Amino acid sequence: MAALIDAIDIKRKTYFEFENAPYLCLDVEVSTPTARGGQTLVRIKMRNLITRAVFDKTFKAGEKFKEPDLEDVEASYLYSDADGSYFLDQTTFETISLNKEKLGDALDFLTEGAMIKLDKFNGNPIGIQLPQQVALKVDYTEPGVRGATASATSTKPARLETGIEIKVPFFVEIGETVKVNTETREFSGRA
């Protein structure tokens, strides 16, 4: 049987199951009453790992949650079509498909063969975890300005191989590979 977690023990980045769905705690706030006999409450900002919805919910300190049956699997991105996106599980060599709703904007960072972590809940795929940074080739950007250096603070727009547009320093040229932070969607250096 899965271990039970008390609401008072939930911390940031803790996974727990609530109403038969897996959740990730994004932030937690414990409020202890000053009056005698008052109930300690735990306010949790949580993300549903299936729908990706984020909301706040308040629980009593003694409420218990199951540990979710979550599994991270190493997988590589194969391709996308109208039906969904396809990944190759690196341990079972099984092809797994995910629809656009489960991927969100992750396709902006995926190129053929990219390695990612595939999230499974009760054995079923529910989403992916992107690496902190990905390397993508610049498809189009305006020509660089003569004298622009690596310390230049001015930027220009660039379209990358996946179609995402980001701001890059003036010295970046077409055909170069750049590192992009997947959380902030910003340039983080040359690859």
UniProtKB/TrEMBL annotation:
Q: Identify the domain of life.
A: Bacteria
Pfam family name, one:
EFP
Q: Where is the Translation elongation factor P/YeiP central domain?
A: 72-126
Q: Name one GO cellular component term.
A: cytosol
- Which of UniProt's keywords are assigned here? Cytoplasm, Elongation factor, Protein biosynthesis
| Boundaries of every Elongation factor P C-terminal domain copy | 134-190
The membrane spanning regions, by residue number, are none
Known pathway = Protein biosynthesis; polypeptide chain elongation
Mitochondrion is among the record's keywords: no
Location of this chain's protein in the cell: Cytoplasm
**One of the record's GO molecular function terms:** translation elongation factor activity
The alphabetized list of GO BP terms reads: peptide biosynthetic process
- InterPro entries, per this entry? Elong-fact-P_C (IPR015365), NA-bd_OB-fold (IPR012340), Rib_uL2_dom2 (IPR014722), Transl_elong_fac_P/YeiP (IPR020599), Transl_elong_KOW-like (IPR013185), Transl_elong_P/YeiP_cen (IPR001059), Transl_elong_P/YeiP_CS (IPR013852), Transl_elongation_fac_P (IPR011768)
What family does this chain come from, according to its entry? Belongs to the elongation factor P family.
Q: What does this protein do?
A: Involved in peptide bond synthesis. Stimulates efficient translation and peptide-bond synthesis on native or reconstituted 70S ribosomes in vitro. Probably functions indirectly by altering the affinity of the ribosome for aminoacyl-tRNA, thus increasing their reactivity as acceptors for peptidyl transferase.
Q: What is this protein called?
A: Elongation factor P
User: Lineage of this protein's species?
Assistant: Bacteria, Pseudomonadati, Acidobacteriota, Terriglobia, Terriglobales
